[in-house]
Automatic annotation (TrEMBL):
GO biological process, one term: translation
One Gene Ontology term of the molecular function aspect: structural constituent of ribosome
Lineage: Eukaryota, Rhodophyta, Florideophyceae, Rhodymeniophycidae, Gigartinales
Protein name as it appears in the record: Ribosomal protein S11
A GO CC annotation given for this chain: ribonucleoprotein complex
Family of this protein: Belongs to the universal ribosomal protein uS11 family.
Keywords: Mitochondrion, Ribonucleoprotein, Ribosomal protein
Organism: Choreocolax polysiphoniae
Signal peptide annotation: none
Length: 116
């Protein structure tokens, strides 16, 4: 019997958050790249990104008999790299991938009133 988990990946401008929960919504753990950062250094560097994948995503790969629904949200320059690594690590475990990013519409502009 497979256990179904949801992997939420939130991309912000300066950070990446990962949350693992079950189908009932109980969170097992959440992590961010900021946990690995040292003082006065940037969070989104390639070395921190590789360490983040090695520490936390490989822990998810060790869970036996599990399937993942992956939900993405937000924009970031590392989003493509993160997706590539998630696909290579969990290629057999992924059930679905959804991107819930909201595009800004900034409202509708009213027509200009005519003056006489």
């Amino acid at each position: 019997m497979f256990k179904i988990y949801f992997l939420f990946i939130l991309f912000t401008q300066n950070n990446i958050f990962i949350t693992l929960s079950n189908y009932q919504g109980n969170t097992y753990f959440w992590k961010s790249i900021g946990f690995l950062k040292s003082k006065k250094s940037k969070k989104l560097t390639l070395s921190l990104f590789k360490n983040f994948i090695n520490f936390y995503l490989l822990q998810l790969n060790n869970i036996k008999n599990s399937k993942l629904h992956i939900k993405l949200k937000g924009f970031n320059k590392c989003k493509k790299l993160m997706l590539k690594n998630v696909f290579t690590l969990f290629s057999k475990k992924i059930l679905s991938i959804s991107d819930n990013t909201n595009n800004a519409t900034n409202g509708c502009k009213l027509k200009k009133k005519r003056r006489l």
